Amino acid sequence: MHFLKQCTWLLLLLCSAICAHAQQRVSGRVTDNAGNGLPGVTVRIQNTNRGTVSDVQGRFAIEAPAGSTLVFSFTGYKTVSQAASGSAMAITLEEDFANLDEVVITGLATSVKRSNLANAVATISAKELYGMAPAQTFDAALSGKIPGALITANSGAPGGGMSVKMRGVTSIFSNSQPLYVVDGIFISNVSVPASLNIITAASRAGNEQYQDNPSSRVADINPDDIENIEILKGASAAAIYGSKAAAGVIIITTKKGQAGRTIVKARQDVGWTQARKLLGMRHFTEQTAFDKGGAAARDAFIAARNAGKLYDHEKEMYGEKGLLLNTNVSVSGGDERTGVFFSANRKDEDGIIKNTGYSNNSLRLNVDHKLNNRISVGLRATYMKTSSDRGLTNNDNNSISYGVALSAAPEYVPLLPDANGNYPILVGAQNPIETRDKMRNNETVNRVITGGEIKVLLQESPKSNTRLIVRGGVDFFHLKTEAIFPRSLPFMKDNLEGASIQGNTSNLNSNLAGILVNQFAANNKLNFTTSLGATLETNYLDLILATATNTTPLQTNVDMAANAALQQFRTKYRDNGIFIQEDLLIMDAITLGVGLRLDRSTNNGDWKKYYALPKASASWNIAKMPFWNMQLINSLKLRAAYGQSGNVAPYGARFLAALPSNIGGNGGVLVDNQLGNPDIKQEKQTEFEAGVDVSFLNGRLTLEATYYNKNIFDLLIRRNLQPSTGFTAQWLNAGDLKNSGIEIGIGALPVNKKNFRWNTHVNFWKNKSKITKLLIPPFPMGAFGNSLGNFYIEEGKSATQIIGTLGATPGIGVLGNSEPDFQLSTLNEINFLKNFSFRFMLHWKKGGDNINLTQLLNDLNQTSPDYDDDKNGNGIKDGDDRNTAFGKGEAKGFVQDASYVRIREIGLYYELPIPRNKYITGVNIGASLNNWITWTKYNSYDPESSNFGSNTISTATSRGSNGLSSGVEVMPYPASKRATFHVNVTF
After folding, report:
1. Reduced 3-state DSSP string for 806-832
2. Which of 952, 936, 947 is nearest to 969 (CA)?
């Protein structure tokens, strides 16, 4: 018995020793090279999901098996692996100048270090996006920051409106804008017009597209909430996202709460905005006034001159200095199990035109919580309310919009009201000052984007783990458009007698994904990651438009009118997909990946058919191989990738729509003039890219070079039909398109001293397109006809060529191309005198032509500021020369080089030295300029312009924008530049 007791005690002691040996408490501190504690560092047990984060002093503690390895990772620093130790560990992280250890998203639930990435994926940090010289909206803040993208401001009107084309023209008629994903939620970027055509008749002749130029819904997002952005530019990277990713994917990750003390940040911006450039007015003489309008015009000029009443109408219209106010408060914090981030933002901005402006109010709450070591949940919720007063600009066939009407107003004609509030009559057009003062064109949006995810660790062993990730979200917005034109406006008399045009749009996007991810470490040199999942996306848009005319004086309700008409337009689709992806990592140097996605959509002709979209990629970081011994080069990676994605047919392409009819009070149904095509299928895009990434001098000099070749098959084209068919148009798959280009990025840290540090990054990119097959005859599109310059889709030619009539020479010829020859941007940050930071970004777009019809309208009304110049020395005024050429049918004068060099952002900031205290930990003050300096020979307000907007929906009565919509200018809302002062306080 005594012997048995001894054995029992011995066995218990042995088990205790084994347990003690199996688990130990490991603690320590993580610092940077200067010895400062790093808060928020992820400390993870290698090959497991177990981990913790360092506190505000950089300290950490974790239970770890003896003999295990801890991995320390933190954004902007190199990852460090070190064996767990029972004694206090001291970990020093070095800055990762080349961002080689940055984790990049490669799938719906997978990621990889940049040093092993097989695709060219661009990343924009919060500082790069909004920390230099904040733009008005999120989409405007992207300009010049995405290699391979052509980003164009459609209008300078408050509330944004940007066109983003990545790696060339993705589609001629179908979607050409990228997919935006916010914290895993697919959000809508649709533009909904205010239906102003009843006022402007802009689509009455020349082009049936909407020309209201509404704002883009992605502009609603508050940039202050964004942590970072990743851009998947082509099918090789974005294939796993399926048919919505043909034009690329912009993945937005918002801020999270970190373990440690609660941090409160307050930010206040105050500034002003003004027109970037005014064209000026033509200054008349007695003779030139007589030449323009005869004796009556000459007498009017003499009277105005003698009375000192020669006016600068352009400055009166566009010369406002708008006040900019932005207030942001955020709270973040948490512990090892829970992280919380909350923010509130209010933005109010006046426009450069009286009675225009923009406001954005938003709230965000992000919560992450670990229920236990196996289950974690996350919640993302944001509410936004935006309001944009956009005025009345762009094309107009009734001489009502501001710019068109201003072109008919010489300096000697008064436009301002008299003491009794009576406005002068403008001959040949409507008084734009009166229109500005009395009308209203507003967009108001209430929007909720919310989603969540659940991560469950289903299985874990020393060599493998399996996770289930369920992620879903909804994006709902209600858009109210309100365009009010009171009956007191002269152009309402004997016409509409007042108009109230009000639209209500409800849009609901939802997406759901279930994903299984297995990670298997065969050994220290071989790791497998397998992911399998299914996705579902739905959309429902409901637009109800009420147009009331002959309104009751001083009333805006649509029921307070003698005439009212209702229109309703609805779209509804469902997309679902299944995918599998396998990634292999060998020796932390070689990556191999293959994947397949099966996609289908109710917008396709055969909505039950799945389209297969494969992908494959490989990379080899030679510098990680055992034989590598070149100290100068610390990373040398070769990479190649191939992928396919699709672009589903537009809603309604496969069926024949019904239109309402009312004849003599009898309701009925008419068929649309667009014939449905039950055999329509989605476009198929294939892309191959190859590149090399090199890092020198421990990351102080980097090079990234990429070549891509993108082919689009089965182009969706809306062709015209013969009148004898009874229809005017039909969608069909009728061509192929090719894009190819290069992207080069160079990063450098030329100086890295204690009191002076200069970090610079230069990006260069160019793209060329070609129509490789066209099954229908060549056709013009996108502008107002060959006599004014037009895009022309023709087999064997560039997709962005501009053609036009040649005047005395019979026929039509190529006059230009809207595709830039190349683009280059450079982003620089200089830190000096310890607490100062100077940042600037320069953007150069070389080549790329616009169709400038603003100059044409000024010339026809003989009000162009350079009308009396004689630059060619032929003794004839330049304005007369241009009008004569137009009369002869020469379109080349309207196709103009839109090259520019622009300092997009400049910022100077100073970190105030704050004595240690319990309340304030940091104060940063600064000043910035946005789009302040531009060098260009383009003869109008701004080389970035588009009369047709982008991503505008099509309805039964008018067609939306297309892939070639940018680059056509007709009297836009002028671009503005911004100056802002900033105060940031951290508590």
Report:
1. ECCCCCEEEEEECCCCEEEEEEEEEEE
2. 947
The Cα–Cα gap between 217 and 189 comes to 5
CA neighbor of 182 nearest in space, from 210, 221, 212: 221
Core vs surface per residue 876-914: b (16+ CB within 10 A) or e: ebbbebbbebbeebbbbbbbbbbbbebbbbbbbbebeee
Residue 181 Rama label (left phi>0; alpha psi -120 to 50; beta): beta
Closest CA to 381 of 342, 346, 347: 342
CB count in 10 Å sphere of residue 63: 12
β-sheet with 185-187: strand ranges across: 121-125, 226-232, 249-254, 179-182, 185-187
CA distance 289 to 303: 12
Task: Look at residues 685, 642, 687, 645 and name the one whose alpha carbon lies nearest to residue 240.
Answer: 645
As to burial, measured by CB atoms within 10 angstroms (0-12 exposed, 13-18 middle, 19+ buried), residue 454 is middle
pTM above 0.85, yes or no: yes
Total count of residues recorded for the chain: 987
Angstrom distance (rounded) from CA 339 to CA 331: 11
Please check whether residue 838 is in contact with residue 829, taking contact to mean a CB–CB distance below 8 angstroms: yes
Element (H, E) at 378: strand 375-389
C-alpha to C-alpha distance for 842 and 825, rounded to whole angstroms: 6
- Looking at residue 628, its amino acid is W
For the segment 116-130, what is each residue's pLDDT rounded down to a tens digit? 888 888 888 888 888
Strands 729-733 and 674-675: parallel
The CA-based angle 514-517-520, given to 5 degrees, is: 170
Mean pLDDT score across all residues of the chain: 89
The answer to whether 617 touches 239, Cβ cutoff 8 Å, is: no
Residues 232-289: tens digit of each pLDDT: 987 878 888 888 888 899 999 999 988 778 999 999 999 999 999 999 999 999 999 9
Q: Rounded to 5 degrees, what are φ and ψ at 188?
A: -85, 140
Which tokens in the block code for residue 7? 């054995």
Q: Residue type for 382, please?
A: T
Euclidean distance between CA atoms 561 and 498, whole angstroms: 9
